[in-house]
Amino acid sequence: MDIRGILNSTAFFNVVLDAGQLDALAAAAREVRFGRGEVIMRQGEMGAVMYALTDGKVVVSVHEPGGERVVATLAPGEVFGEMAVITGDRRSATVKAKGKATAIEIGKEALAPLLAAEPKLAERFGAVIEQRSSELASRNKEARHWVSVGVGREQIAARMTSFYSG
């Protein structure tokens, strides 16, 4: 698997990172596989990794008083788990593999050297997360309950800077 090529074709990364940063991130990332129905992350957990989906689909759900509610189905090229690894927030949703799925796993330790070398990356990641959250909320009114709409790029960048400096 060409991890570098996959990261370069993933909008979340290619609009933020330059070629050298993509190379460094690819070197620190790894491929992971999930079985049908496997829970990849649970709502409320702390998270130290994010994923770029490369094959298969995953279902995103949130726990509500009436039970679990599916809020999105993600396909290859999409990322998930980014808020927890970027800001240190708890997982806002549960993600399960719909069938067999493959992803690139990116840990906090892979992002730390990039942020140390280029502090403005926090602002760029914040802008991307703000845009993605807004797009998701506008596509899916149920998602408004769990995405960080109302949290702007400055707040995301501040959380990211705090999380990675301490």
Descriptive tags:
single chain, 41% helix, Jelly Rolls, 166 residues, four-stranded antiparallel beta sheet
Report the radius of gyration as a whole number of Å.
15 Å
Helicity range:
40-55%
Q: Which regions contain 5 or more consecutive residues with pLDDT less than 50? A: 143-149
- How many domains? The number is 1
Strand content: 25-35%
> What's the mean pLDDT score?
84
Sum up the overall morphology in one term: globular
Secondary structure category: alpha+beta
Give the SSE order as H and E letters: HHHEEEEEEHEEHHH
* CATH architectural designation: Sandwich
Separate helix tally = 7
- Find the CATH superfamily: Jelly Rolls
**CATH fold topology:** Jelly Rolls
CATH class: Mainly Beta
User: What order do the strands of the largest sheet run in, or round the barrel if closed?
Assistant: 1-8-3-6
Strand tally is: 8
End-to-end separation in angstroms reads: 34 Å
Largest sheet: 4 strands, antiparallel
